[in-house]
Amino acid sequence: MPDLPANWRDGIATMRGHLDELRDTLREVADDHYEGVDPTGRCRVRVDGTGLLVAVDLDGVATRLDGAEVAALVMDAVAAADAARAELMAARLTAVTNRIRLSGTTGEPPR
Asked: For the chain, which end, N or C, has fewer CB atoms within 10 Å of the first or last residue's CB respectively?
């Protein structure tokens, strides 16, 4: 492979830095935990960054419901936790892409 011009090497190094930042951001989101509560407030859950259910907390009223009603509460709370995770991921990825834009990296090969 021929030696690349300096501006190409600089561009590749810059893109590697951006990709490293993106990878780190995605890892942070995956390593975090997120909480969600169903609309009635009877069920609170915690999920990890991959969406795996980690903890469920039911109030006294919810513990007296039948299984299908409890499952519906848990599903609503998990959906709320997933929405919180998605919102945070979108905000973090937007911040990364904004930094890339501000750096002047266009994704076009240098000339």
From this structure: N
Angle at 23 between CA 20 and CA 27, to 5 degrees: 135
Contact 70, 78 (CB under 8 A): no
- Which 8-state DSSP code applies to residue 41? S
d(CA 47, CA 31): 10
CA distances from 7 to 3, 14, 19, 97, 107 (A): 12, 10, 18, 22, 13
Q: What is the rounded CA–CA span in Å between residue 53 and residue 17?
A: 33
Under the banding of pLDDT at 50, 70 and 90, the label for residue 93 is confident
The alpha helices in 32-66, defined as continuous H runs, are none
Query: pTM value?
Result: 0.73
